[in-house]
Amino acid sequence: MVCALGAQKSVAGRKLMRASKEFPSTEAEKVKAFNEAVKEVTKDVEGCTVSVTCQMGAGDMYETIENVMPFEGDEKCSIVHNKGEVVLIDFWATWCPPCQKPMAHNQEMLEKRKDDWAGKVRIVGLSIDQTKDKMVSHVNDKKWTSVEHYHRHESKCSDTYGVNGVPHVLLLDTEGRIVFKGHPATRKDLEADFDTLLKGERITGEGAWVDAAPKEEGDEPAKPEELEEGFKRDYDPVACQATIDEFKALG
């Protein structure tokens, strides 16, 4: 029961039900079919929400992000990848201090490479702010207008791509494959990554999708990065995600 204790007259209560489940991207077709079918089951049930999603990640083909709001205008639209383009989609927010430097860097790269990247490289800012107006005002104040900006609005893209915090980026190659997903600071030279992908080559390094890359003779698995004396980056990402999900449920 959710009771509005601030109500002026009687306390109103209502019953809510929320069912949610996440599946790997390999189950995308089944998830899509289920979501279509469940709409008919729940459409007349007040307070009922069923959320079944797939977690898209590095190595998956990009799934078009729909129901976002453009920087200008009030018509919902989609963020589409066009074959031959390299695209960076940056999930961010105006209230997020760590998001500001990466977004400023996005603007700097586009200004610097304006001529040779025209029509080939796109950097998309996808704001998760509560309102679009706040994002528009912030972008104009900072003069970050070379970046394509959208407001998340009614899109379920954060669930689809497992975005649990910002900043968080998706890097797409010319075929529309996600070749990196994670914190932008993980990629030390995004400008070089764009140039590599435009040539049809694969990026390498931490977090990059390299499953299909041919192994050279003598290649050895990368050793965990030394961060501080006595500490290595040896965490288990699956265990980390389980901890995040447990905390979200508790919250």
Largest sheet: 7 strands, mixed
- Gross morphology is globular
List the uncertain runs: 221-227
> What percent of the residues sit in helical stretches (DSSP H or I)?
25-40%
Question: How would you characterize the overall build of this protein?
Answer:
With 251 residues, the protein is α/β, with parallel strands linked by helices. It folds into two domains: 44 residues, no CATH class; 154 residues, Glutaredoxin (3-Layer(aba) Sandwich), CATH 3.40.30.10. It is built from seven helices and 13 strands. The strands form four sheets. A seven-stranded mixed beta sheet has the order 6-5-9-8-7-10-11. It has a two-stranded antiparallel ribbon with strand order 1-2. The protein has a two-stranded parallel sheet with strand order 3-4. Strand 3, helix 1 and strand 4 form a beta-alpha-beta unit. About 3% of the residues have low confidence.
